[in-house]
Amino acid sequence: MKQLTRICWLLLGIVFIFSGLVKLNDPIGTALKLEEYFEVFAKDFGSFFSVFVPHSRTLSLVLSSLEVVLGVALLLRWMLRKTLWVLLALLVFFGFLTFYSAAFNKVTDCGCFGDFIKLTPWASFTKDMVLLALWTVVFLNQRYLRRVFAKGTTGVMYITIASAVAVGIGVRALGHLPYFDFLPYKVGNNIPKLMKPQEQAKYQYVMERNGESKTFAEYPTDSTWKYKSMEVLNPDVSKPVITDFSIFDADGTDHTQDVLKGNKLLLIVQSTQTADRDRFKDINKLMTEAAKSRKQIQPLIVTSSSPQEFDAFRHDVNLPGTFYFADATVLKSMIRSNPGFILLQDGTVKGKYHYHDIPETSKLEELL
């Protein structure tokens, strides 16, 4: 039991640190997932939860940092009993979220490990129950973890450093782009290719005859077999990774294929209401210079705001150029910055830039 307890203690601490760091890599993505939960709860349990929506980014940073700090505290065995009680509160909270999502099919991806590892609702709930089992073993056998690796002032110093590092990682990711991009629109990915399935779907058919069930690789020609069910054998590669990328103008005319040809510099303005307006002097400069580039870069603007809202916005910030429209969720998946730049070469993502990191035209030309 002593060895088992130590294994559970080590796994629990490592998982919490890993989970927190993955979320801190992309705190805006975590905030979007929290918003989704709050909107669901506001609809199902009352408008009280809508109060938290504007504070999703702060809560994302706090909860993700707390996971890291608690994981470090557990591995150091610092204030072990109190640390375990706080861990229990988080596990119960996350367990409720994942169970509610799974049982009522409300949120299809809990975001437990950000976009790095996608889990189904029931897989997420199972993961939380496994962690709760690890917690139970550790809590009931604390006598085997009596040695504290950081006591007194030293322990406080280590926890303070862990807190500062965790918060620092998250704050920098909030003001720039994620350190590691796990989204379909990451640098190097070819959007047209990801809009097509990697291979044709393969099926197996479950048929029934005289109470007997049998699985066929091909649909049987024998009419005595009656269809029962069908299963896709390669679901991960038989459907496109990107299914909702569509660019259109105010009249509804589709321009998706035009955008995916040649050298394009897309300025993504996810929403005019939340877009940072302070950087548009530099943004406008880059848009103008890119249009004159020797690499024939065509600057385009893509937004999810209404034509009326965007027309007022672009006049307000003196934004030149052709503008199109796209779904808000698509734009949030493309880049975690509002506004932000994406450089395309025949649909391949060559560069992504936060509005705090606006590049020079020469940098764009180097990438093409």
TrEMBL record:
Keyword annotations of the record: Membrane, Transmembrane, Transmembrane helix
Record keyword Transmembrane helix present:
yes
Enumerate the subcellular locations listed in this protein's record, separating them with semicolons: Membrane
Q: Name one Pfam family in it.
A: MauE
Entry membrane topology: Multi-pass membrane protein
Query: InterPro entries from the xrefs?
Result: Methylamine_util_MauE
Residue ranges spanning the membrane: these are 58-76, 83-102, 122-140, 152-174
- Tell me where in this chain the Methylamine utilisation protein MauE domain is found: 1-138
Q: What is this protein called?
A: DoxX family protein
Question: What organism does the UniProt record list as the source?
Answer: Hymenobacter endophyticus
Q: What is the lineage of its organism?
A: Bacteria, Pseudomonadati, Bacteroidota, Cytophagia, Cytophagales
